[in-house]
Every structure is written in C-alpha cells, then in structure tokens.
Amino acid sequence: MEEKLQRVTLWLKKIYGNQPVPQYEVNARTVDILYELVECNEARDRDVSLLIEDMKQKATEYEAEANYLQGLLAESLGLSLSSLSSEGTSYLSVLVNSAMTLETKDTSLASFFSAINDMTSELYATESKNREMELELSNLRKKLTAAVMLEKQLEEDLKKTEELLEVEKAKADSRSQNLKFLKDKSEDLKIRIKAAEEQLAATGLDQSLTHESLVSLSEKLAGLQEEIVPLKKKLESYLDLTPNPSLAQVKIEEVKRELNALEAEFSKQIDMLTLEMPEPSKLQFS
Q1: In 22-109, beta strands by DSSP E
Q2: pLDDT band for position 45 (50/70/90)?
Q3: What whole-number distance in Å separates Cα of residue 107 and Cα of residue 112?
Q4: Nearest to 24 by CA among 42, 9, 3
Q5: How far apart are CA 168 and CA 50, in angstroms?
Q6: Contact 133/92 with Cβ under 8 angstroms?
Q7: Which of 2, 49, 115, 186 is most buried by its number of CB atoms within 10 A?
Q8: Are the CB atoms for 64 and 54 separated by under 8 Å?
Q9: Which residue has the higher pLDDT, 44 or 106?
Q10: Would you say 4 and 35 are in contact if contact means Cβ atoms under 8 Å apart?
Q11: What is the value of pTM for the model shown?
C-alpha cells in the first residue's frame, strides 16, 4: 500500500502542479481507486504520446514529399507554389487530400493504383458481407414470422383447450352431482326396502316373498324357459322326420313328456308364487 500511495501522491502533484493537492481520506479503498486512475491516465498518456509521434513522423514524411515534389516541379518544369494558378493549386490540394484519404506512402501513380485496388477489394468484400447479412436477416425475419404465427396458433389452441376444459369440468360437476343424487337415492331406497321387509316379516310374510327371493325365483323361471326352447326346437326337428314313423313317434313322445314335465314345473312355480302372495289390503307400509 505504501508503494501505491507514493505513486498516487507523485501523480497528484504532477496533475495539480503548483496548486495544493485537495485533502482526501487515505485508506485502502481510496488508494486503490486513485491507483487505478493513475494507471489509466499513464496508459492514456502513453497512447497519446505514440499517436503524436506517429503524426509527427507522418507530417515529416509529407513535408519531405511536398519538398520533393516542389523541387521536382521547380527543376523539371520551372514551377513553384507561388507561380501556380488557383486551378493548379486546387488540383495539387486534391492530389494531397486524395493521398491522405487513401493513406498512400507517396503521391506516385503506382501508390494511387495500389490504394484504389485495396479499397475496391475492401468495397467488394463489404458488399458481399452486406449481402450475406441481408440474406441472414431475411431468413431471421421469416423464422420470426413463423414463430409469431406459431405462437398465435398455440395461444388459440390453448384458449380452445381452456374453454373445452371448462365445459368438461361443468359436465363432470353435473355428473358428480347426479351420481351423488343417485347414491343418496339408492341408500334411501335400500333403507325403505329394508324397513318394508322388516314390516312384512313382522306381519308374518314368508321370507320366500322378499325381494331377493323373488329375484332368485325369477332367475330360475328364466332358466326353465331357456331350457324349454331347445326342447321345442328338438321336437320340431323330430316332427319333420318322415322315415321310421314308429321310432320317430317314440322320440316325439319322450320329448313331449320332458316338455310337459318342464311346463308342469313352470306352472307349479307360478302357482306357488300366486298362493304365497298375501292380499294387498292386508299389507300396510309406513
């Protein structure tokens, strides 16, 4: 820190010269900041000095070239700057300005041609690069347009999806309410059926007439009816037989007996249901 402070102090004295250096708080942070300023300032001074030296060198070269041209004009043509007309002076100024613009080492025709060729090459390269950049920019614009259109399409799809979700949510809520209603109704019906069965049981109703028993008997009746159907078809097939009438008659009689037995069983089940069913006036439901 001491070395930095010493260098900062010398720099401040150099900057302010004979004027007093303003007071400042000396700590590590301020010294570091001032030290960075010192380095930046000295680097800038070095760059400026190099630039000045380069300009001086170029000025010397241009002056030498001007003296050479002046001497050449004076020796070969007997001309001097004072003897040139205003038009000639103007042409000479244009020549000098052109040489400075083209940054030629001298004003010879070869130097001008070389500088013009270099600038033409740079111009062509710049134009080519500009065309490439324009093409790339055009492609980027197309991609951007496609991306914007895709974004709009996605926004529309998202909006439609949200609307559809709202509709489906409303339907789901409605179904949920209906399902809850059906569940509640089912529970209520179960309770009422159970209460009715208990009341019927209390009045001496046979358990065979309960809902479960009736459903079971209905299933049995349906099964008997299904068994009768193939027997009827079998009977019809035997009735269509012509050869061996006696054998066919025997088979027909067997099938008729089976059919009559099933019909008798079916009628018996129906009669049992009819006889066991109590009078409607004797049943009371609360």
Answers
A1: none
A2: confident
A3: 7
A4: 9
A5: 79
A6: no
A7: 115
A8: no
A9: 44
A10: yes
A11: 0.31
Token pair of 216, please?
A: 């079971």
- Reference 224, options 252, 253, 261; nearest CA is 261
The pLDDT tens digits of the residues spanning 100-158 come to 777 777 667 787 788 888 888 888 999 999 999 999 888 888 988 888 899 999 999 99
Tokens of 252: 């027909």
Model pLDDT for residues 210-226, shown as the tens digit of each residue? 666 767 777 877 877 78
Q: How far apart are CA 217 and CA 163, in angstroms?
A: 52
CA-nearest of 24, 21, 23, 27 to 4 is 27
- Do 8 and 38 meet the contact criterion of CB atoms below 8 Å apart? yes
Structural contact between residues 134 and 121, judged by C-beta atoms closer than 8 angstroms: no
Rounded Cα distance between 102 and 115, Å, is: 6
CA 61/CA 66 separation, integer angstroms: 8
